[in-house]
C-alpha cells in the first residue's frame, strides 16, 4: 500500500487540477459582478445558471456514494470548490447542500438514501442542516406520536434555508440527539437575503408530524462531524474571499495615482498590503490543518482544529476586509464596487456557526488537547 500511495495522491492532485480548471471556466462565464447582482435580485436569490453548471460538472455529486449518482472525492475537493466559490462571492447554497448530503450519505438508511441522494447528486434537490453552531444546545424537541414523531422548535438564520427542498433537523429525542429528515414544504419558513446577499431562512416546527422512517442513524456524534465539516468549508470559502480581496486591493493600489505616482509606492500602504498577504497565508494554512483534522477519527482533536481555524480565519478576514476598504477609501463601501461585497462576505463568516468566544472555549476545553 505504501508503494502506491504517492501515485494515488498524484492522481488525486491531477483530478483536483482538472476540476479547478473546469470550475474556473464556469465561474468566468456565470459570475461577473453584473451577473451576481442580477442573481441576487432574482426570485431564487442565486444564479440558477451557475447551479446548473455546478451540477453539469458533477460538483453536486462529489464525495457522495456512486450507487446514487455520486462521484469520487472527499473533503479536499469540496474545500477547493468552496475556496473558488468564495473568491467570486458565489450566492448558491453549495456548501450547505454538500454538508447535508454527506450527513445523509453517512447516516441514512438505504431507503432514505435512495429517495434523496440521486436528486442531491444531480443538483435537482437542495438540502441543509437546520442547525448553526457546534456549541449550541438549543435543539428542537422530538416526542413520540403514534409510530412516528412530533417535532417542535425553531431554527434561525439557516444558510441556504430559503432554497432548501429538505431540512435535516437535530432534535432532543428520548434523552439523545436525533436527526430527522423534514421536507421543506412541511415547515413554516421565512426566507430572506443576508447582508452579504446570500440566502437564509428561519423555520418554525409547530407539532410537525414525522414518520418513523425519517430518523437518521447516528446522533450527536454525526451532528458534531457535520458541523465541523461545515465550519471547515466556511473557512475555505473565506480564504477564497480573502485572496480575491487582496488581489482587488493590489490592483487598485497599482492603478490609483496620487501626487503623480501610484499609491502602491507609498510605504505605509505597502506595509498594510504585506500584512494582508501574511493574514491570507496564515488563514490558508490553518484551514488546511482543519481539513486534515476532519479526516481523523479523533473527534476532540477535530473539534479543536476546526474551532482554532474559525477563530484565526475570522481574525484574518477582519484585518483584510478593513484594510481593503481603507485603502480603497470611500468607494470601498459602495455597493456598486466589489470591495464592499468582500467586506460583507468576510463579516458574515464571523457570524456563522458560532461566535469567536464559543470557538475559543472549544479550543480550550479539557480533553481537547
Structure description:
The protein has helices at residues 5-30, 33-40, 48-57, 75-87, 94-107, 110-122, 220-255, 267-294, 299-328, 338-351, 356-364; strands at 127-129, 140-145, 148-159, 166-173, 176-183, 188-193, 199-210, 257-258, 261-262. The model is unreliable at 1-8 (pLDDT under 50). 54% of the residues lie in helices and 16% in strands. By secondary structure, the chain is of the alpha+beta class. The protein starts with a helix and ends in a 5-residue tail after the last helix. The strands form two sheets. Strands 1, 2, 3, 4, 5, 6 and 7 form a seven-stranded mixed sheet that branches. Strands 8-9 form a two-stranded antiparallel ribbon. The chain has three domains: 5-125, Orthogonal Bundle (Butyryl-Coa Dehydrogenase, subunit A, domain 1), CATH 1.10.540.10; 128-218, Butyryl-CoA Dehydrogenase, subunit A, domain 2; 221-364, Butyryl-CoA Dehydrogenase, subunit A, domain 3 (Up-down Bundle).
Which key terms come to mind for this protein?
single chain; 369 residues; alpha+beta; Butyryl-Coa Dehydrogenase, subunit A, domain 1; Butyryl-CoA Dehydrogenase, subunit A, domain 2; Butyryl-CoA Dehydrogenase, subunit A, domain 3; 3 domains; seven-stranded mixed β-sheet; two-stranded antiparallel ribbon; 54% helix; disordered N terminus
